[in-house]
């Protein structure tokens, strides 16, 4: 396919402000724009006008149904389709869509995770249109649906989704960041979190994917011997993109451009068949919605081209896992990036104020941030093959670190301006040096004019990590603003004095070295930084009274909503581990043991046949075959023991009634046993006839496309 010019098709399937301005009456458009920008309610009369013109626009593009899209606590996007169909007063069939239908929907809430807030006989739940995220039409084949981004809440008014807490945290961030700017330099502007989400994923041939029950149901290979060549040659990273993949990427980007997603970058990632795409920065809420769209479109386009997209954090052992890097900054309504250092960051007090606020936030709430990216998949990824470890720390780079150290030491700030690089080649332009290098081992790194939260898992919704990051910064800004207001006359000296306190307090979170090293783990412990290695450990922070007070105080969740998320995530972890353990047992019984038994018999029959020939010299040469048979038999025996141990342990853990104890038992008992089972399966794969092995190998999955 020939890709259209992005600027010509961008947003063509989106009913955004630009489109609405052309179609809506001036007063209606003005009311809607005010509702979006000032967090006001839209009147029903205006909503009816918007809904009617929105329907006409969608019908002209082939839509027959509409849906309120929402993000339940499953982490996926949910939808229920309703037809543009009504009766007139004479019971004649007509197309219809009212303001009430636009503003509010009513899906069944009982079958979505609620953590005990709702029961089956209390099923009523509502979706409500989020006008800050544009409506669009999604075209799949010959079916077109009008999609309305929405929040999801219960009959009792509790948030059952991931969007509502994000919107609350955005509102709080605007309040405290705007307050800070008013105090610092008198500016009266709005502030919002600005986010760009890098998305990593694998593509494999669907014919091999379909033959792997573990990939189909668990998203990762529970068994599989690594190939002789993996990623050790570093020849896939930024390499030439295969034609089949490039064509798939072009279609993905074309669809996303039409949906208003500003795709910018695509490239091969480190592992074979691993890729990445990244967009231009957007407001946090829109970035979160768009990332959900990105995953959906990648899956659908890949499927249509005979490929399967994998978003699991660790689909293949022995090669890089996949992450989702959240690039986060703060943008003012007049276009200023508050984390832009400028040429002289040491003189930029606004930049330093917000930089220190973020440092303080991550230091104080690092454990909560760690919990937001905890998942069974990320347990396999964190700390291995370029993924950052579970210990949250911040990398600033030597340039900014020196500035903060100077402030702390009360020295006169004399940091030089940002330099340039001279490669000694006159024909090349001057290359500007960033204020910080990159540290790929750091989970939270400053990367020029933003922070990059690198520890987020590739399959996760980014809504909750952004929510908690926003809230943590809100908490820090609130404390700093309160102290700043107490100062009679605000000036450079008083601001630096305040910053000095917070720089000193947050020093333990700053680390410039190798986050993979054993020395860092020991040093982090001395600094008092949490090292929450498993998902249940990470979730436990939500029971800490100080964390609960932080959540309630910043207002992104109330107490019931907080408890529900704790229970939902514990239950989700147990369900995932249970599925994986059952799958492992079935793979062993149905795919591993049968070819191993046949191989055992073939070798034994071969030895017996040679002995039956009665040739003593030949019989004496069978020692290597007999040793091979002994090793094969020993591995089969060990596998059977480990399989039985796993089954017994799984039965015992599933029977547990205490949810928390069950989650920890899955992490500490079931998961290690699954690893032991896998070890023997992978050893057996190496010696069993490849033609007899029914599961497609890593060679097929990672190198054939």
**Backbone shape:** globular
Main beta sheet = 7 strands, mixed
Pick out the low-confidence regions. none
In whole angstroms, the N-to-C terminal distance is 19 Å
Structural class by sheet pairing and helices: alpha+beta
What does this structure look like?
- α3 (26-38) packs across α4.
- The protein folds into four domains: 6-161, Glutamine synthetase, N-terminal domain (Ubiquitin-like (UB roll), Roll); 177-198 and 323-420 and 431-554, no CATH class; 200-322, Creatine Kinase, Chain A, domain 2 (2-Layer Sandwich); 575-703, Four Helix Bundle (Hemerythrin (Met), subunit A) (Up-down Bundle), CATH 1.20.120.
- A hairpin with a 2-residue loop joins β8 (135-140) and β9 (143-154).
- The strands form five sheets. Strands 1, 2, 3, 6, 7, 8 and 9 form a seven-stranded mixed beta sheet that branches.
- With 705 residues, it is of the alpha+beta class.
Distinctive features:
single chain, about 700 residues, alpha+beta, Ubiquitin-like (UB roll), Creatine Kinase, Chain A, domain 2, 4 domains, 23 helices, 21 strands, globular
